[in-house]
C-alpha cells in the first residue's frame, strides 16, 4: 500500500454535554492534522446528562458540518475497543491544565498498553482554558451569560432545555402559572 492511500484517522472522544467552543477548537485543530476525525460521544447511562446522546450527536453534527473530514458517532464501554474495531490509531485529547495531564497521561499509557492506540495531547487555546461543560451548565442555570462560550445553536438549545426543566419543576411543585 502506498503512502498516498493511507488515511490518517483520529478520534476526539467526550460527553459533549453540551459541546463548547473549547471542544470545537480541539476538533478543528485535529481536523487540520488528520484526514478523518471521528467525534465520539460517550454513552454513560450512570451519569445524568442535560441532553440525550441523540441530541448531542445532532448538535455536534450541525456545528461540525463545515468540516469536510469530521463525522460524529457514539460509543460505550472502552474507547480503545471502539478504536480497534474502526481501525483508529489515535485519540486526540485537549488539555486545559496540569491536573488534566496527570489523569490523561495514565489513560494514554493504559490505552497504548491495551490496544496500541496512541494519544495526542493538544493544549487548549488559552481563551478556553477555564471552559468545562459542567461549568457552562451551572452558570446558565443561574442566569449567567454563556453565549460567548458556545456555538449559537448550542446556546439556543441550552436555554430552551433549561427553560423546559424550570417549567417541569414548577409543574411538579404545583407552581405552574
UniProtKB/TrEMBL annotation:
Which InterPro entries does the annotation name? Cyt_trans-like (IPR004821), PPAT (IPR001980), Rossmann-like_a/b/a_fold (IPR014729)
Subcellular localization = Cytoplasm
Q: Which domain of life is it from?
A: Bacteria
Pathway this chain belongs to = Cofactor biosynthesis; coenzyme A biosynthesis; CoA from (R)-pantothenate: step 4/5
- Which major enzyme category is it? transferase
Cofactor(s) annotated in UniProt: Mg(2+)
Citing just one GO molecular function, the answer is: pantetheine-phosphate adenylyltransferase activity
**Function noted in UniProt:** Reversibly transfers an adenylyl group from ATP to 4'-phosphopantetheine, yielding dephospho-CoA (dPCoA) and pyrophosphate.
Similarity field: Belongs to the bacterial CoaD family.
Q: Which HAMAP family match?
A: PPAT_bact
Instruction: Supply the name of the protein.
Output: Phosphopantetheine adenylyltransferase
Q: Which organism is it from?
A: Jatrophihabitans lederbergiae
Amino acid at each position: 500500500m502506498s503512502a498516498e492511500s493511507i488515511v490518517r484517522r483520529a478520534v476526539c472522544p467526550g460527553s459533549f454535554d453540551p459541546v463548547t467552543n473549547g471542544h470545537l477548537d480541539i476538533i478543528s485543530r485535529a481536523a487540520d492534522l488528520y484526514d478523518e476525525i471521528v467525534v465520539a460521544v460517550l454513552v454513560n447511562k450512570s451519569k445524568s446528562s442535560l441532553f440525550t446522546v441523540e441530541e448531542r450527536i445532532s448538535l455536534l453534527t450541525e456545528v461540525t458540518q463545515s468540516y469536510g473530514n469530521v463525522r460524529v458517532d457514539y460509543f460505550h464501554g472502552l474507547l480503545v475497543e471502539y478504536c480497534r474495531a474502526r481501525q483508529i490509531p489515535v485519540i486526540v485529547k485537549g488539555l486545559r491544565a496540569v491536573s488534566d495531564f496527570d489523569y490523561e497521561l495514565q489513560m494514554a499509557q493504559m490505552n497504548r498498553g491495551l490496544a496500541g492506540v496512541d494519544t495526542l495531547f493538544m493544549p487548549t487555546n488559552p481563551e478556553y482554558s477555564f471552559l468545562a461543560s459542567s461549568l457552562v451548565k451551572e452558570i446558565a442555570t443561574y442566569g449567567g451569560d454563556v453565549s460567548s462560550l458556545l456555538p449559537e445553536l448550542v446556546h439556543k438549545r441550552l436555554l430552551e432545555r433549561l427553560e423546559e426543566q424550570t417549567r417541569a419543576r414548577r409543574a411538579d411543585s404545583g407552581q405552574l402559572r
